[in-house]
Design goal:
6 helices, mainly alpha, coiled coil, SMC hinge domain-containing protein, 2 domains, two-stranded antiparallel ribbon, Helix Hairpins, SMC_hinge
């Protein structure tokens, strides 16, 4: 009985020591949890501030880049439009010059034709006049041609009649030709008047085209375009694109770090361990209904968002001791 009492006392002492050790372990765990919480709060605050600054800088550079690109595109459109108008006006002037030259050539040809026709008409009138004179001389018995000397009067009259008939036929032909030429002259004069009107219209069209060219040149000179400014905008655009790329890399790195912090990996502390006892990090177990409250939750919860939820303290202790965290 004394032996049993001694064993009981010994076991009681061992139990008390185990309780004290358990209390000590719990105190150590609490201290470590507090330290982990403080460290998590510090890391979370620094990480959040850095991430916010990077995002703000990225947004600022993105807005500046959009402004620069928009300004560059607007100026480029204005220059292209002015160039197109200038080319169209030049084409119009060139076409007008060509049309005027063609009309001038046509007028020159028509004038030459009129001159030839008028000359032929004068020759025909002169020929008719000479024939009439010869006919009158023959009727009066006067020979006006060489080679008629020694001929009898009947022969001269016969020859005169023959010449008169020939002259009359030639006169009729000359009159017909004169009438035809007169009609041709009238037609040519009408065509010339039309061509003159057409030339006047072409001249007006040419003048308008020249005025349009001058107007476009004036507008083009007023366009606020500078090669130096354009190159400066190009360089600024390239710098902003590089800055955005660098900031994107920083964001990707920080996002990867954040994902790494949210990942909780452990080994089974004992064979056949029930992993359903480990619920996961608080950050993954919490669902925010309204996204605008996310920042407030991060500020209030702090590092506790990265603490792990388990079913009981024994599971947590087992993970700390043998979970290879």
């Amino acid at each position: 009985l004394d032996i049993n009492n001694d064993e009981a006392a010994t076991m009681k002492d061992q139990i008390e020591k185990l309780d004290e050790t358990l209390v000590q372990y719990r105190g150590d765990i609490g201290t470590q949890c507090e330290q982990i919480s403080v460290l998590s709060d510090k890391i979370s605050g620094e990480f959040d501030n850095e991430l916010k600054e990077v995002k703000q800088s990225e947004d600022k550079h993105s807005k500046n880049l959009i402004k620069v690109i928009t300004s560059w595109k607007n100026k480029q459109k204005a220059v292209d439009s002015a160039k197109n108008d200038m080319q169209a006006a030049r084409d119009l002037v060139s076409e007008t010059h060509t049309a005027v030259q063609i009309k001038e050539q046509d007028i020159s040809k028509d004038a030459e034709r009129i001159s030839n026709i008028q000359k032929e008409a004068l020759d025909a009138e002169e020929n008719l006049k000479n024939m009439n004179t010869d006919y009158q001389n023959m009727c009066a018995g006067i020979s006006s041609s060489e080679g008629d000397e020694g001929k009898t009067l009947p022969e001269q009259i016969s020859k005169a009649h023959s010449d008169a008939n020939n002259a009359d036929a030639r006169a009729k032909q000359a009159r017909m030709k004169h009438t035809h030429l007169a009609k041709s002259i009238k037609k040519i004069e009408t065509d010339m008047k039309k061509e003159e009107k057409s030339a006047e219209k072409l001249g007006e069209k040419k003048l308008k085209a020249i005025q349009k060219v001058e107007s476009i040149k004036s507008k083009l000179s007023k366009v606020a375009f500078s090669e130096t400014e354009f190159e400066s905008l190009e360089n600024e655009k390239a710098d902003l694109e590089n800055s955005v790329g660098n900031l994107q890399e920083v964001v990707d790195t920080l996002s990867a770090q954040l994902q790494g912090r949210l990942a909780f990996n452990y080994s089974d502390p004992v064979k056949g361990f029930d992993r359903s006892k480990v619920k996961g990090m608080v950050a993954k177990l919490v669902q925010v209904q309204n996204s605008k409250h996310t920042t407030a939750l991060e500020v209030v919860a702090g590092g506790k968002l990265y603490q792990v939820v388990v079913d009981e303290a024994i599971t947590g202790k087992a993970l700390l001791n043998r979970g290879k965290l």
